[in-house]
Specification:
With about 250 residues, this protein is an alpha/beta fold. The chain has ten helices and eleven strands. The protein is about 40% helix and about 30% strand.
């Protein structure tokens, strides 16, 4: 029981903190929030089970902890509240780190890239910006990938701009353009829904990593997960997951 007066309130808070890892190890179960509507990071497969890079990472961490993994689907809007209300021990859901989020939750090291890139069919050889010459690339007008494409595209590229992502994707799928410049999640959806196109990663435009969210103050759990990520990075397992789902290695993550 907590003692009286103001100082003991800090003791109460301290007593509640740092328990997540101990609880996980005692129960041999870890609850991880994941996406199910954001391919290739997380989506529902034909067997109606979640799959994707974030799900693979969740299961990887569970295996390293020797704990059963309980996957909890979340949206972009509720993934942080799930941590704050202890409905999840970790959030592995394409979570970017920024100052506002750092005020309310903590972050592990990065585990995967999140990027904008040029994608296209395997049959089309594109390895450098120069290879874009003479080819058509669809992109959403004013999007980040439009700006980044403009920085590397040679003058001989036929850049076709569309008013929204749906228009850009439709143009690529229907063959109006040979390549598409878009985010990894949009490309992932194209790959899942249109496997006959043989779409793959071609050129990186901009990279920004994903981090795992941990409840504020749960340093023991955060540091343990960091150990697992560091080992996975050294063993090449992060690269294998990224190649499997994103078509490129994870690379040098912070």
């Amino acid at each position: 029981m907590c003692l009286l007066a103001a100082a003991p309130l800090l003791l109460c808070a301290s007593a509640r903190a740092q328990t997540a890892l101990d609880d996980v190890m005692a129960k041999k179960t870890i609850t991880i929030a994941i996406p199910t509507d954001f391919p290739p990071y997380g989506f529902v497969g034909t067997d109606l089970k979640p799959q994707g890079l974030d799900i693979d990472m969740a299961n990887y961490i569970g295996a390293k902890l020797g704990a059963k993994v309980e996957l909890v689907p979340v949206t972009s809007a509720n993934r942080i509240p799930y941590l704050q209300t202890r409905k999840a021990d970790l959030v592995i859901s394409t979570l970017g780190k920024n100052p506002d989020r750092e005020k309310v939750i903590d972050f592990t090291s990065a585990y995967s890239p999140f990027f904008q890139a040029v994608f296209g069919p395997k049959s089309l050889a594109v390895k450098t910006p120069a290879d874009l010459n003479g080819k058509s690339v669809g992109v959403t007008r004013g999007a980040m990938e439009d700006q980044e494409l403009g920085k590397i595209a040679p003058s001989g590229v036929d850049v076709k701009r569309f008013e929204d992502n749906n228009g850009t994707v439709a143009a690529y799928v229907s063959g109006q353009v040979q390549l598409i410049a878009t985010g990894a999640s949009v490309a992932g959806t194209v790959m899942v829904k249109n496997p006959q196109l043989g779409t793959e990663f071609k050129l990186l435009l901009k990279d920004s990593p994903n981090f795992i969210g941990v409840a504020k103050g749960e340093d023991k759990l955060r540091l343990k997960v960091n150990e697992i990520i560091a080992e996975a990075k050294k063993a090449g397992d992060l690269d294998k997951m990224a190649v499997k789902w994103l078509g490129r290695p994870a690379g040098d993550l912070p």
